[in-house]
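## Example pair
The file below holds two records. Each record gives the amino-acid sequence first, followed by its structure token line.
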Amino acid sequence: MQQSRSEVTERDGLVELSAGSDVLDSPRYNHDIAPTRVEQRTWNRWHITALWIGMSICVPTYTLGGVLTAYFGLSVGEALLAILLANLVVLIPLTLNAFAGTRYGIPFPVLLRASFGIIGSNVPCLIRAVVACGWFGIQTLFGGLAIHLFLGSIFPAWKALGGTGEVIGFLLFWGLNLWVVLRGAESIKWLETLSAPLLVLVGLGLLVWALPHISVSELLAQPPKRPEGASVTGYFMAGLTAMVGFWATLSLNIPDFSRYARSQKDQILGQIFGLPLTMFLFAALGVVMTAASASLVGETVSDPVSLIGHIPSPGWVAVAMALIIVATLSTNTAANIVSPTNDFQNIAPKLIGRTRAVWLTGFIGLALMAHELLKKLGWIVSDLSLESVYSNWLLGYSSLLGPIAGIMVVDYFLVRRQRLDLAGLYRDDVYPAWNWPGFAAFAVPVALTVMALGNRQFHWFYDYGWFTGSLLGGALYYGFCGRRARSPAALAKPLP
């Protein structure tokens, strides 16, 4: 006989829900976004380290490193410093937002129900989901290009397909990504563990190829691509914000992964071991190789897939592309499909299960890349480059995601003091439908960011979007919650 009321137990700092009919029959619950049971939390620090290595060592990481010099006007030395600082900064919200996932076993959308409300959580969820779908499309473009170059290196006739071959590669890689995610979290864990070393090999191979032809001292001495005499501060902070914005997405939905961690120690050490150094080294490789590409192949090339395509040996190109395909697959599935899958389920858990959510993610990602795919087919002509799109996009969306990160951290640690009603997060009678302090704290920094775009003197607020947004959003939320929300009596149970 099914129990009527849910029961919550705690073992070694991990909270577990034994769901009763009050939760199981709720429209806010399905099995895919339910809290993980303690026995399901099997990821140790090395699994989480491998997860981050697999996600960090990816084509966009490399490309963004090059974007800092090519589009943000930084010198090679300034770009390397921006990368290092950004990854140390982003480690803070990543680790803090992971705590609730590990303790309560809940994914990102369910955690948001505490700070934005049971229904209101869908707004930041959808903001995060659309961004993830966009990155899914971008990564799939790189994976599709790798498939095209792989097949072209084996079958010379395939090369003649040109852009059409790239589109076919895109569709093949698109389907492969969805298949992996549909197989579940364990398949992602093992894929990450397997593929983490592969792009390391690609990176080392690029260095071996390039080092005889470049001078590191000359690269470091190259002047930055910005107006002569311009202050470095604005350019550096814009580049730093873009680098932080790169992981602004994962700093929100890290509970989607930390809910599988064995302990807080495992998730903390796994992130420290896996993210900063790995991200720095591979992005630094992108900075160096992009700066050196002109002397290597006669033009500036900011992504490794296209650069490898210039290598005159078809055999080595085929090997490199095979490694890139597997490594990009691991990054794309973990970083860009898991989160929107959970986010879409949060809208209507009884109607949208995991399978439907995965397909929805896939088709939105496909739609967002329609412009680029039509360009490759030759059906439209456009000068808009993919690099310029996401270099500007990084700043723009970090301004939206920064306040959400600040609100989440303040809500869990300062307002609720790490106390959540686990069963109440899946019902309608504990937390409000809309938590207006959360929306007010989100709206103010976003509005200021939009205003800053049209004001030259206030433009720094946009350039520093993630920092200004997260700090202001968190401070406003703390203030809006008021004294009663932070009193011991109110904290004995979740906030009304």
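Second record, same layout:
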Amino acid sequence: MRCFFCLLLICFSHLLNGQVNFDATFENGRLDTAFADSGTYVLAPITNLHFRVFNAQNQTPTFKIYDSLGYQLRPYHHMVYRYAADSIWHFFDTAYKATSFDYYHFKNHNGFSQDTIYVAYWHPYTYTDLQKYVSKISGHAFLQQLGVKGHSYQGRHLYGYQITDTNYAACYKQNVVVTARQHPTEHINGYFIEGFTNYLLYGQDSTARFLRRNYHFFIYPMLNPDGVFNGSGQNALGQGLNREWEDSLISGGTPEIDTIRHVIWAETNQKVNWSIDLHANAGSNIPYYWWGYTASSPVAQWQQVAALDFVQAVSSADTSSPSGTTSFQNHIQGNGVNNSLTAANWFRRSFGAIAFTFEPTSEPMGPTGDNAYSIHQFKAAGASIARGFANVFDTVQALGGFVVADSLNLTVEISGGHPPYAYNWSGPTNGTGDTLFNPSTGIYSVIVTDALGCQWQGSINYTNPSFTISEVSKSRLGVYPNPTRGALNFSYSGPP
């Protein structure tokens, strides 16, 4: 791949007659074709462009990309550039596309102030960027299990980490799994991950503390590091990872997904309450949308309600929009349940989780590029997703229950937790099932343990029910207590 780029780019230099020269031989670089056409430089591919331009100082080159599919580029999408001497990305100040099937043009009115610039479709987030971030957060008090969970086909690290406050009992926490960068071209979800993580680690407000006490977050920030490093849309084996989560397809065939799937299964102890798989969309007119739940989705009603409650909570928590209004507003409806081979559906099938695929665009508010997101705003939106969990904790129940008595049996009714459940009755009569049959009178206690070792305890003072007849007439009996369960045995003495 690299050798091909080298040969191709030598040709580019000759084709461009020394005006500006192009290069993509660096980490995450991608430029398949470039040629001059009447003073304009025609480029490909579309959404994964990331290249370097030499001899740019004082020049105002016009670039254009042909959108052959007619939907991948929004009319006013803003490409970004940075100078080689610094790390700050800037938006090109002019961009337009006349029709759906047309060239997308972008340029700057003023000449560049330095000779070498980097150009990209949207703010790049590289494998090296992730390594630097992992090193930065290492050792934080709320960070657990930070490390390498496996390796890609070419040997790059598959990172993962957990965030929670270990001073609070794990049994009563909900597990949230966040995955990202299955599609290497979707750079901006790297910044969403950083914003999400930063808020959970460093947030000092009551919401951040609540989240750390009541949730256990499992984060796997880059599932396709080879694709990210190589500037490819697939992994090093040419596979698109988001359709490779079905067990029958992935075993031995997709090393990254095969590895991370088993890691998630083990690290969560087979308990996942929520899952978000982060993606990004290049061409949608909807700023943010959540794939997974509609009124017709084949999931339980409570999951649909919980899913929409969560998205609404995120909308309410969001302050990231350049215009100062929420970017999530009015975009809470789902768009159907994903393809059965996707990550979101694997989480639903495997754990019964409330699972989303989340796709933002880089222009969240309106059709013009005036409201294009900065890196800071991507991170702020990631923090908003984290804050959304504070309002939906009660939608997924912790282990609980109550004991029901009748004239013949004691029964414990359990909700929440993680089945199967184990029962241990103690009292005048002992037992190990959910029902204690024909118990003797006395005080009983039952301890229920779920599959994760979490426990709930209930008790009852059981007596054989006695009833007092308070009124007798030709048509009715008055009985106390009322209502009651079981058989009524009574005798009568008095006038016939």
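Notes on the second record: The mean pLDDT is 81. The radius of gyration is 30 Å.
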